Amino acid sequence: EGAFHEKVTNAVVDDLVRAIEPRFIRLSADWYVRGGIRTFVTAEHRRKGWSPAVPVELPPARTP
After folding, report:
1. Element (H, E) at 41
2. Alpha-carbon distance 4 to 10, whole Å?
3. Rounded Cα distance, 46 and 23, in Å
């Protein structure tokens, strides 16, 4: 069965969302096919109304 890499990656994300109901998920798929052709696909899902927390910035480490 032939399929586009993007469609397969999105199908995996959809299956995971149905199974585990995450607030956020990002899947990066690195596809290699015959002939040395490489496709890198990233797909993500965000629950409606969800936004990431504000990043915490730490001060630079001191060197002795």
Report:
1. strand 37-46
2. 10
3. 6
The pLDDT assigned to 33 comes to 84
Q: Given this model, what pLDDT does residue 2 score? A: 79
Residues of the chain with pLDDT under 50: none
What's the pLDDT score for residue 1?
Answer: 72
SS3 64: coil
Q: Which ranges constitute the DSSP H helices of 21-56?
A: none
Judged by DSSP in three states, 10 sits in helix
Residue position matching structure tokens 């504000």: 54
Supply 21's token pair.
């109901």
d(CA 26, CA 50) in angstroms, rounded, equals 14
